[in-house]
Design goal:
Helices cover 37% and strands 22% of the residues. It is of the alpha+beta class. The longest helix is centred in the first third of the chain and has 21 residues.
């Protein structure tokens, strides 16, 4: 008898289903429908695997994936939500996705083709969320929203009816990913700042130097995980809020997974500054960028036209230099 290697884990499960694909299939011959589904499978699997998730199964025009199982991931809820947004952007024109994402305990085994490797109530809830989502919508379970608090913007809480759930299932629609430093620790508790007064004084002094002299100042904070780097930056932001001039704060994070993320931190700064939503179509992003459309290369937009790749790179770098150097009334950049 094969050894049972299943174990209980905290994971995030994602269900996605193509909305309106049945009607679309009726309008096409079987070969074209199959080819379109194959492209869909490849695109969705690519996004899931790039974020460290595992495809559990494809069934017709639906996909199920797990994050944090079978391989453990600390930020599985955030990865699943980033993947959900990326999947929406990858579907072909004329198609939309309904997506449900839920976090909870699952029983996980080994990933094997053609068989399920995660099971439990968290899986069932994720499926119910997907079924209740509107076309183009992502519904996140309460636990997922709590785990990703500060990293994503959510809509108003909602309760959906589900068989076997007398009180229904509480969930929230996902609006967009945020470019803000995520709050850590237990919510609702006051955060103490202890033992970093010297470091705080040094970064405050660096900011004052940038105000006194119209030149940028680079400060690099290094330290092992859990040492308090993020906490130091949050304290700095709170202290500088009363400075004159007050800084214009923007944050870009470096992702620990995925491909094509070289410019990701700059992309987050740009999206936050010009209020670009994850759901905005390319034409709306271009409109918001205005005369600085070349900055869209940072976000993966094809705005280079006929420019040679090296020329496009040089123009992009020049545009960023200009963007960060331009004077702003009564404020200074703090990125």
């Amino acid at each position: 008898m094969a050894e049972d290697r299943s174990e209980r884990k905290l994971a995030t499960v994602l269900f996605a289903d193509l909305a309106g694909s049945t009607a679309l299939a009726d309008e096409q011959d079987p070969e074209r429908t199959r080819a379109r589904l194959e492209r869909f499978y490849d695109a969705m699997a690519g996004e899931i695997e790039a974020a460290g998730g595992t495809v559990e199964k494809f069934a017709g025009d639906a996909v199920m994936a797990a994050f944090g199982a079978p391989e453990a991931l600390e930020d599985h809820a955030e990865r699943a939500l980033h993947t959900a947004l990326a999947m929406q952007r990858r579907v072909e024109a004329g198609l939309t996705l309904r997506i449900g994402v839920n976090t909870g305990e699952v029983v996980a085994g080994s990933a094997r083709e053609g068989s399920s490797f995660v099971s439990g109530d968290a899986v069932n809830v994720a499926a119910r969320l997907e079924q209740a989502a509107e076309s183009g919508e992502i519904l996140a379970g309460e636990r997922t929203a709590a785990a990703a608090r500060g990293a994503f913007e959510f809509g108003q809480p909602r309760t959906i009816e589900a068989k076997g759930k007398p009180g229904g299932i509480r969930c929230r629609p996902v609006v967009r990913a945020l470019s803000l430093m995520r709050t850590r620790g237990v919510g609702g508790l006051a955060r103490a700042f202890v033992g970093r007064d010297d470091e705080l004084a040094r970064v405050q002094a660096a900011y004052r130097r940038s105000v006194e002299r119209p030149r940028p100042v680079l400060v690099t904070v290094l330290g092992e995980a859990g040492l308090g780097k993020t906490r130091l930056m949050r304290e700095l932001w709170e202290r500088l809020a009363v400075e004159e001039p007050s800084p214009l704060c923007r944050t870009g994070r470096c992702l620990a997974y995925g491909e094509g993320i070289t410019y990701w931190p700059l992309g987050e700064v740009l999206k936050e500054h010009v209020a670009i939503l994850e759901s905005d179509p390319p034409e709306e992003v271009r409109r918001r960028l205005g005369s600085r459309e070349i900055l869209g290369l940072t976000l993966g937009l094809d705005v280079a036209g006929e420019l040679h790749p090296l020329a496009a790179r040089d123009r992009l770098h020049s545009a960023w230099t200009s963007f960060l150097s331009e004077p702003r009334a009564n404020s200074r950049w703090l990125c």
